[in-house]
Amino acid sequence: MKGGTRALGLAESYVGEAGRSTLAGAVVRADRVVDDFRFSACTVGGNDATDAIVELWRGLDRPDVRHVLVAGVALAWYNVLDLQRLHDATDRPVLAVSFEASAGLDEAIRREFDGDAADERLAAYRALPERRPVAVNDDTVYVRSVGCDDPARVVRAHTPEGGRPEPLRVAREAARAADRYRCPTDR
């Protein structure tokens, strides 16, 4: 992959302000150059994270972005993403990357939610594509993808060292910094 290939990394941070989680989008080239940022928010424990990311994407207006990478599939306390809808809205390959082996979220969702709230989250979670391990440098990440023929190649191209793709690392830091700015007394 060429060094100028751009990916949008998306990550969230929450420090306790009124049930809202900060979403940061960072456009980062494969050669680690940061090109742009955009911010949005979603409800902690809600079901609006997909809508918030679509809104962020539209506001970003970056046709040069080739891939969308998201840190996980259950942002902001089980606000489960719809990866197919993200792919349809962005017309880009979408990869959700997680960093730990897991037996899945079914049990945790049932423990934290009841009735329709649990059913909606479980249905959204079960509709996601299968999670596959990807060896990257000396680490393993777990990737779900929609519209991507070779997710391992994309993840590796955007991970120059360690196990966290650079667009996701930068987005996570941006979301945390935005939270510190908005809520300096909550830290």
Automatic annotation (TrEMBL):
Q: Which UniProt keywords apply?
A: Endonuclease, Hydrolase, Nuclease
Q: Extract the Pfam families matched here.
A: Endo_dU
Presence of the UniProt keyword Transmembrane in the record = no
Give an example GO molecular function: endonuclease activity
Q: Which Gene3D superfamilies match?
A: archaeoglobus fulgidus dsm 4304 superfamily (3.30.2170.10)
Protein's UniProt keywords contain Nuclease = yes
Membrane spanning residue stretches: none
Q: What family does this chain come from, according to its entry?
A: Belongs to the UPF0215 family.
- Protein name, please? UPF0215 protein GCM10009017_04690
